[in-house]
Amino acid sequence: MIVLSQWLHFEIDFIDCFVQDQMGAFQGHLQGDVLSVLLDAGVLFLLRWSLDDTSDGVMAAAIQGFAAILIVPSDKVHDSHYVHV
Q1: Which of 14, 19, 40, 81 falls 20 to 30 Å from 68 in CA-CA distance?
Q2: If we measure between CA atoms, which residue out of 47, 50, 49 comes closest to residue 39?
Q3: Which residue ranges make up each domain of the chain?
């Protein structure tokens, strides 16, 4: 159970840091791009591996992690201005 809890905390912290970076919280504090560093570190592999877990919490956190990487908040704002027919 401890390992599961630690894994879940990692995923939640990753999502929080990534979303904060997208919102510009680290602008001027970091020299590189957070996304490229995380991708080079193998975060996609870790998130994909989490989808095979039996815990619903770990799988949900992995899905939120993928969403944080794939969905850009500014795209959501622009998308709301379009009329879908």
Answers
A1: 81
A2: 47
A3: 2-79
What is the spatial distance between Cα 77 and Cα 80, in angstroms, rounded to a whole number? 5
Closest CA to 32 of 52, 40, 78: 40
Closest CA to 51 of 18, 15, 17, 7: 7
**H-helix segments, 25-72:** 34-41, 43-50, 56-70
Six-digit token string for 34: 């957070």
What are the tokens at 17?
Answer: 């840091």
Say how far apart CA 71 and CA 49 lie, in whole Å: 20
Whether the Cβ atoms of residue 45 and residue 51 lie closer than 8 Å to each other? no
Tell me phi and psi for residue 15, to 5 degrees.
-60, -45
